[in-house]
Amino acid sequence: MVDVSEKAATLRIATAGAKALVNAETFKLIKEGRMAKGDVLAVAQVAGIMAAKKTAELIPMCHPIGITGIDIDFTLDEAGCAVVIEATARCKGETGVEMEAMTAASVAALTIYDMCKAAQKDIEITGVRLLSKMGGKSGDWSRKI
Questions:
Q1: Which CATH number describes the domain made up of 10-134?
Q2: Which is catalytic among the residues 3, 114, 122, 140?
Q3: Known catalytic residue at 114
């Protein structure tokens, strides 16, 4: 693990994204809140938040950090039959929160799969990626669209 003890504690923010691609029938069940296991997006939101807090336990070289906030937002893309996930993590610390944001987005997508697998087996999870980061020695960065 990299030694970050000499780095200054600064505000750090990272946003990551992912998509869960479903068929029209599954999309309708998600949108209408009629999936047998319950409210897909509410459960996926809680799972993503829990995952962000456990990132250092899952990724071997990640530092355990004090997350000060995590937001997970979903956009329902009807034309693409997709649930678009954005996870934003924040902390004041010596190292960034990119891995926490990406873990949150990934686990939210996996939870959507789990909540919907009885209705559809071939759900695809795509586009797991860092969208932006702010703070730290390397400065701000944003994905070019």
A1: 3.30.70.640
A2: 114
A3: yes
